[in-house]
Amino acid sequence: MGSRRVADTPSVQHEACDVCVVGGGPAGSATALRLARRGLHVIHLERRVFDACANDTLRSGEGIPPSTMEQLKELELAGCSRWALSTVDHLVTRWPNGRTTDDQFPNDATITMIDRERFDQALFAAGAQAGVDARQGWQVRELALDPAGQCDGVLALDPARRPVTIRARLVVDACGRNARSIIQLGLRKALTCTQFLVVVLYVDALPELEPHRWEMHFWGGEQLAIMHVTELAPGLVRCGLAVNLQTRHNTPTDRLPLFFWRHVQANRSLAQRFEHVRQVRPWYARAGLAYGVQRIALPGLLLVGDATGYLNPILGDGIWAALRSAALASDVAYRACSARDVSRARLAEYEQRWTAERRTRWHVARALLRGYEHPSLLAAPAYVAPFRKMLLGALLRR
Ligand SMILES: Cc1cc2nc3c(=O)[nH]c(=O)nc-3n(C[C@H](O)[C@H](O)[C@H](O)COP(=O)(O)OP(=O)(O)OC[C@H]3O[C@@H](n4cnc5c(N)ncnc54)[C@H](O)[C@@H]3O)c2cc1C
Predict the structure, then answer these.
(1) Strand partners of residue 187
(2) Pocket around ligand 1: residues whose beta carbon is below 6 Å from it?
């Protein structure tokens, strides 16, 4: 195709549907599933081929709290034998002042650590079972816009890399942080909040780590470091280092192992425990996690999940947000398609509802992040067990 735009490339094939959902993460699959269950003709495109060996199956080693499980129950998808790796029910915290606390999660709550590839695959397959035309190995290259700027389909490459035009009354973009519409329509906006660099090392074992416990270690002065340690499965321990990037020096994108080990060396007790570990998976890293999105409802187009903006994994609610935004978007999308009106005015209800629903969470997350900027304040919960219990209860229930 050389440097020609996809739109200029003659499509070998044209197809049509009610809704084209792009992206096979939790947001896209939940949207496709909900719309198919309501009888719409849905084409769902995912660029990955599940189970391909190049896929990053664990990503950052994610966990889902009870609130996310509730969303899955709503979709009748909470049976998790294929994708659940382990559960966590205690938080062990090593505070910046050196104190250690060990708290059981209130109300028998647990966090389920997951295999993301299997999780995504299960949701994607559930859509296919419900009648979604679900396709793997399909990459969307461009949104198709009519002369008035309304989105009326997508231009995609099929698994054989042949261009295909799919016309749709409505397109749902669930492509995550680099969603097609964010890039093509210039929707990304910067957020003023603490940015982090996250580097994850997977090792075979870490001395003293107990199963079902999530360890959280704080240390460092000007540049606060936080290490999250959890056993995902026997022989597989996730060690996630998050470093506050407010101080912009020493940001290493090309020297992650050095960066990781330099921070670990600054924490004597952790350094000892890491002395004989064996790395068992490739490094995972992400920097500058927070961003906003100017609009999430445009003519003929809705954005869901991470494509609506992201703050920080601090609340562990990214998958919850993906599933919840999908629920709101599919409700509005169904009614808009039934009324044959996908104007911005008609779809704006989704933007209002999702923005309002997420506002409180973002306030809470920003308040917690502020603590990271003041390590002396951060140690306060080390002395007040009821406060920690309340905080944990609120975080897990939300
Ligand atoms: C360090 C870190 C830790 C996290 N920890 C947690 C956690 O513990 N718990 C939690 O709930 N959340 C966590 N999250 C957040 C969570 O990963 C995301 O919020 C969630 O994956 C969003 O789902 P999504 O469906 O919106 O997007 P994604 O999961 O990113 O899915 C997007 C999909 O779109 C596909 N795609 C992209 N472009 C195209 C294209 N052009 N054509 C076709 N397909 C395309 C991709 O292949 C992908 O499958 C964490 C995030 C980070 C960065």
Answers:
(1) none
(2) 22-28, 45-48, 60, 62-64, 68, 139-140, 174-176, 180, 198, 286, 289, 305-306, 313, 316-320, 322
